[in-house]
Prior knowledge:
InterPro entries: Aminoglycoside_PTrfase, Kinase-like_dom_sf, Pseudomonas-type_ThrB. Belongs to the pseudomonas-type ThrB family. This is Phosphotransferase. Residues 40-250 form the Aminoglycoside phosphotransferase domain. The chain has helices spanning 15-26, 66-81, 125-141, 155-166, 174-194, 233-245, 254-269, 274-297, 299-302, 309-338, and strands spanning 32-38, 42-47, 54-58, 85-86, 99-103, 106-114, 200-203, 212-214, 220-222, 229-232. Residues 328-340 have low confidence and may be disordered. Strand 2 and strand 3 form a beta hairpin. Helix content is 49%, strand content 14%. It has two domains: 15-114, 2-Layer Sandwich (Phosphorylase Kinase, domain 1), CATH 3.30.200.20; 125-338, Aminoglycoside 3'-phosphotransferase, Chain: A, domain 2 (Alpha-Beta Complex), CATH 3.90.1200. It starts with 14 loop residues before the first helix and ends with a helix. Strands 1-2-3-6-5 form a five-stranded antiparallel sheet, with helices on one face. The chain has a three-stranded mixed sheet with strand order 4-9-8. A two-stranded antiparallel ribbon has the order 7-10. Helix 4 (155-166) runs antiparallel to helix 5 (174-194) and helix 5 runs parallel beside helix 10. It has 340 residues and is an alpha+beta fold.
Amino acid sequence: MPAPAFPALHSVLDPAALSAWLAGSFGCAPPEVTFLRRGLNDTYRVDGLPAGGAILRVYRCGWRTPADAAWEDALTLRAASAGVGAARVIPHPDGARVLTLNAPEGPRLAALFGRVEGREPQPTQEDAARFGRAAAALHAAGEGLPAAGRFALDLAHLIDGPVARVLPLLAGEPELAREIQAAAGRTRAALEALEGQLTRVSCHGDLHGGNALVDGGGELHLFDFDCGGPGFAAYDLAVYGWDHALNSAPDDDTPWTVWAAFLEAYRAARPLTAADGAALGPFGVARALWFMGLYADLTGTWGSQLAGRRFFRSGLASIGRWEARHAVSSSAATSRAVSG
């Protein structure tokens, strides 16, 4: 008698089996399914469905609830209906928009999205302006979207939870742990002082070039709203700046001029308050802390070597560069964003 299957933490679903499943679901010839990448979730390219080119996202087990996925779907629908370039869910023929697949590790949600074709945005002021206009349109489209069922991008989610996940990995690095706690403490204090004055929106949560494409007509399309939720406009805007600054050289001004163009385009379509502008710097640090916590959370499936001393030291270095440069560079960007 064969031994029972060994438990799995994260499986890669067979593209051929997914093709057969999609063919049966949509009543069509088996589409071509290609595994593209493992990220927070698994992403597959699908060609040959009646609805056209698609992207299949298979969420990791336990990562999101059906209510979480429904909120994301609702935001993308609102965005697309308002004219924002956003990848929409392709419904299952029975009307379901989020499905459940039984994987070796347990149930995994799955959703099909219409595929966007285009090029990745470049670190230029022109593409930054496209991004800024798209972010403003998204925030406008999401006004009034009920938050029920979706996690909030609040200070607990962005700072407290991530640091709590990081510290156990640094039991043998007390100095590193203290530096991270100090960064979290000063960032939380700065944001708490502003919190009551900040503009709240439905956030994309991960505004960077890897989650957008520019089509042949020059329109920027957003996708992958998986890390979004009800939160703060300044956080969404800071993510864009932080992503550009993350791997830049200390003397490279490009990330800051690009971020300034992004903020200027956003402000032309949607106002930023003085408090929002003041929060951009601390929210950039919050993003860095969230990113550290993300890697700490995924050591079981990504491997512990990816979240070792070198990773956290690099994260602290990025925080140091951000805080040092933000005092000069983003003050100009902020003043342009909050003044007429």
